[in-house]
Amino acid sequence: MTEPSAWVRMTQADPGHSAAYVQRFRDLAAGGMDLVGEARLVDAMLPRGSRVLDAGCGPGRVGGYLASVGHTVVGVDVDPVLIAAAEEDHPGPRWLVGDLAELDLPDRFDAIVCAGNVVTFLAPSTRGEVLRRFRTHLAEGGRAVVGFGAGRDYDFAVFLADARAAGLEPDLLLSSWHLHPFTAESDFLVAVLRPG
Ligand SMILES: C[S@@+](CC[C@H](N)C(=O)[O-])C[C@H]1O[C@@H](n2cnc3c(N)ncnc32)[C@H](O)[C@@H]1O
To answer: Which GO terms label this protein's molecular function in UniProt (predicted)?
Structure first.
């Protein structure tokens, strides 16, 4: 059986957590905050009309933008409250409830974007499986882009070793979604991974 992610455990402990998360991002959007920096980077990697998986999509801010500029988007998230918000706020993409450790879609993607510290919420026993499934769901020439911060119990070196073991090699390592280079001192990683 798939070990539940830390996000699921958080929502079980605090049933209002997901609704508060949705509201926080709705308030930020209403206040004019730029919420699509990650999506702009992914868009720059792709020709128009590409197939994108938003892995751990939450309420859909990344996948929603990518669909709005002409990509075909599927979003998957384990939290049904967030998927309901994605459907309401960003109609267009296919929004699906599911655990990334059990991802099994007929689709193959030109890009998989996994933004917003999603990998740090994964149950450690599922990390390798999620990365293997990312690998399986990439189309020929496709790339996965994973971003997360330091200090969240998933060491960058361990993540990159897990990715290699799953058949994903680093194509480019950045320390931000705004193209700053990754260094030994970086406290954020954006890993662009390609099948090895
Ligand atoms: C901080 S939120 C980020 C949401 C979105 N990626 C964004 O950046 O706006 C983390 C998300 O990871 C999702 N998540 C965590 N573990 C997951 C899993 N095993 N499978 C699918 N989604 C998961 C949570 O449900 C939550 O939506």
So the answer is: polyprenyldihydroxybenzoate methyltransferase activity
